[in-house]
Design goal:
With 328 residues, the chain is mainly alpha-helical. It folds into two domains: 100 residues, no CATH class; 225 residues, MetI-like fold. Helix content is 74%, strand content 3%. The chain contains 13 helices and four strands. A two-stranded antiparallel ribbon has the order 1-2. Strands 3-4 form a two-stranded antiparallel sheet. A hairpin with a 6-residue loop joins strand 1 and strand 2. The protein is globular and about 80 Å long.
């Protein structure tokens, strides 16, 4: 298991290094004037000259890339004299639009995106796996057909349409929930959950449909395996056969898509956060695009890549737990 983990960690480091090289090429080499792109729309000529020096654009490309990598771990100073700003680890750049290090902006918005992602993930797993397993065990029945139609219909609706309909139906018409806003969990857990319930539902309905279809097909395939017939012949309870043998075997493809989905959502759900007005990383990314704030866009891109790579590492470890053959 230790060797397996070591190989995965080396692979993770290699992927992150490749992502850094790709983002450096996109944000530093492809633009005609990388300093102007980093400085934003409201950049003065004096500030533009400072940005060019800070980015080291007068140095060879390889030195720029080394500085780009080392600054992430060792940090760097932006500006000079008493007005200089130190960007510590992890230094993902400096936003001249906000006059703050990008990491400070991200860490301020991260609790919102994490709350949104974790809550939605719990809901879509409960709804999606429950519907998929029920459909598989009742294959060909009316229940199976109804759940299949629901899954296809929910997957066909874009998240912005579902979000607007939830706001109109639950908040404005029925007045059952307050309009979504973010409240810290430590201050008021009930207010935190009630204000995020609509965004959770909007995301959960979209993802649950995909998980229901995937889990249904996986369970049907798993329940047709010879070892399932053997377990039933030995007289094991139906719940043990379904959960311990069938569901565990059918979890492999579910873990794959779950790692990708959760990793992407942790870096922000742009549409959902924008519609519900949540100050998360997705909303920060949208504002960065609107303002042409390249350091913010780059920082969110690197953070999203990190979350997805880490999520896939955790999925690999869960593979080894679910299926011991993977360890070898």
């Amino acid at each position: 298991m230790i060797l397996y983990l070591g190989r995965r960690l080396l692979g993770m480091a290699g992927i992150l290094l490749a992502i850094c090289a790709i983002t450096f090429t996109i944000f530093y080499l492809l633009p005609n004037d990388p300093a102007a792109a980093a400085c934003g729309k409201t950049c003065s000529p004096e500030r533009l000259a400072e940005v060019k020096i800070a980015m080291g654009l007068d140095k060879p490309v390889w030195e720029q890339f080394v500085s780009y990598l080392t600054s992430i771990f060792a940090g760097r100073d932006y500006g000079s004299g008493p007005t200089a700003t130190h960007c510590g680890f992890p230094c993902l750049g400096y936003s001249y639009e906000y006059s703050l290090p990008v990491w400070d902006l991200l860490i301020d918005r991260l609790p919102v995106s994490v709350s949104l992602a974790i809550g939605a993930a719990v809901l879509w797993l409960l709804i999606g796996l429950g519907a998929g397993v029920t459909s598989a065990l009742r294959k060909g029945t009316v229940t199976d057909r109804v759940l299949t139609v629901f899954s296809v219909g929910a997957a066909s609706l874009p998240v912005y349409f579902t979000s607007i309909m939830l706001i109109w139906g639950i908040v404005r018409s029925a007045d059952l929930l307050p309009y979504p806003a973010y409240h810290k969990f430590t201050e008021n857990p009930v207010s935190w959950a009630s204000n995020l319930l609509l965004p959770w539902l909007a995301l959960a309905l979209l993802y649950a449909a995909q998980y229901a279809r995937q889990s249904r097909s996986s369970m049907i395939e798993a329940m047709a395996e010879p070892y399932i017939r053997t377990a039933r012949a030995k007289g094991l309870p139906a719940r043990t056969v379904t959960v311990k043998h069938g569901l565990r075997s059918g979890m492999t493809p579910i873990l794959t898509i779950f790692g990708m989905d959760l990793g992407g959502l942790l870096a922000g759900a742009v549409i959902t956060e924008s519609i519900f007005g949540l100050p998360g990383i997705g909303r920060l990314f949208y504002d960065g695009l609107s303002r042409s704030d390249q350091p913010v866009i780059l920082g969110v891109t690197l953070l999203a890549a990190f979350f997805i790579v880490v999520a896939n590492l955790l999925v690999d470890l869960l593979y080894a737990y679910v299926d011991p053959r993977v360890r070898y």
